[in-house]
Protein: MerR family DNA-binding transcriptional regulator
Amino acid sequence: MKSYKDKKVISIGVVSELTGLSERQIRYYEQRQLISPERSKGGTRKYSFMDVERLVEIANKMEDGMQTFEIRKEEKQRANREQVRKKMLRGQLNTAFPNQRK
Structure:
């Protein structure tokens, strides 16, 4: 079950108000593949609370002088580390409980 923070239900206008970013900046971050809103049937962007937090983080990094490609690279590295960590944890659990598979 998805956490309420992961549900994409917030419009770009509300995200703009929450983050202090312009709608244009938010669209730019989407264009640079730093954020991925869902689209409604009518094409309206919908964001989650996690997206809002991510946008604030992106804005802070940009303010500190990072470029969008650096932020994207950093995010890919973090995701890769997380994936490796999960695999290692699964391996440890499989070793500790070899007959307990779902």
